[in-house]
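Please, structure for the following, as tokens.
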Amino acid sequence: MPPGANVIDFIHALRWDDLPEAVVHQARRLLLDLVGVAAAGFRTDLSRILRDHAAAHFTAGAGTSGARMLFDGRRVSPVGAAMAGAGTIDSIDAHDGHKLTKGHIGVTVLPALLAFADAGGGRVSAREFLLSLVLGYEIGTRAGIALHGTVPDYHTSGAWNALAAAAVGARLLGLDKNQTRQALGIAEYHGPRSQMM
């Protein structure tokens, strides 16, 4: 994101041609890493428990197709699919991290992206998928750095990853700028600012 850019404008204006080749290459590497970690995490007890919990308590609801859980296939609400996917990835704790955020970004961004894309019913192109992944990382990284800049404590990733998921959702759902502002506000308000240690 360029210095001084408005985050709402950035979410809506980012285009494939704006991404340097090095960023596209890194996005592909991060995607491959996250999918590999999720595949390993799928066999953990934590993943099974979360997926069964999502199937029992986060149903897709009447009149919706919901979203499929990662490597599972059962349809649940998009929230349930994202939660189960994040828990599956996090169960191995081998996924990417960022020194300045003191945490993980992809663990939230990829499952949220998959859930939004699947529940939306429309096809998301490979370019839009990678672009949304980059967007989520950019927003999540900047929010994590900002949060840790306000206090010396080590906070959990959910405190700032909620903003990344809201940004990805706003873009994929085609929200207008006011709706995007509201989504980010809700995510920031409800993001758990919990101390890690």
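The beta strands are 67-68, 75-76. The chain has eight helices and two strands.
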